[in-house]
# Entry
Amino acid sequence: MRKIFFIFLAVAATSTSFAQQTKKDKKEEHRKRINALTKQEEEGVITYSKHTVFGFKLTNDGYGGFMEIGRAQSVKKSLLFQLDISERKHPKEDKQTNTSYAGPALIFGKINFFYPVKIGVQQQILLGNKSNKNGVSVTGNFGGGISLGLLRPYFLEVFDTTASRSQRKSIRYESADSNLFKSNSELYYLQATGPGFGKGWGNLKLTPGLYAKAALRFDYGRYNEVVSAIEVGVTAEYYTKKIPQLIFTTPKNLFINAYVSIMFGKRK
# Structure
């Protein structure tokens, strides 16, 4: 029994020593790899072949999110494949709350929610590399692609005066009740409220178009294997039909906006 106990202790000690040595070797390997990446960055040597990035953006007329897959072409060039989904709001939108009836706030005169879905390709060019591991690399990118404008009708919930008993109904601009959208006082009388998030998805309309985009990206990730960046840029979108967003305003085909985005991801 005593022999078994000593054998068990010897095996446990050996295993612990081996695990500690393995951990030490992994730390040393990681340190060497990081040092090599830092040296390559300082020398301007490409250290990856692809990257995957996710991000969020704020525009002067809305917000959105995107995914990007990059493929390196050379030391200074990459191709970026992007999927971008956002919501665009009209600058004259006015959100109102009916104090006489509890419910979601309404936007007077709103006709449609507008969701551009953009699929495109960009050329990225390295403008300035990191001078050290704590530096910032600067890249410029430009390109474009297809923009699919999704229009979700804006429904109002109002008190139904034609019903025999108190109840509410949903109305939208393209309906027999569309005149109500033009009367703020009538909507107040009818205790109008805005729609819930699930309303209108079954009535989506699609308007195709094209877009172009140009931007500067500032990557402050400590090493080339990590993407941590801020991007600022402008986009221009043109649709085959005018986009109705708000009554008493002129629908348009062309939208130009500025944006700032933050993104995170990894390179391989």
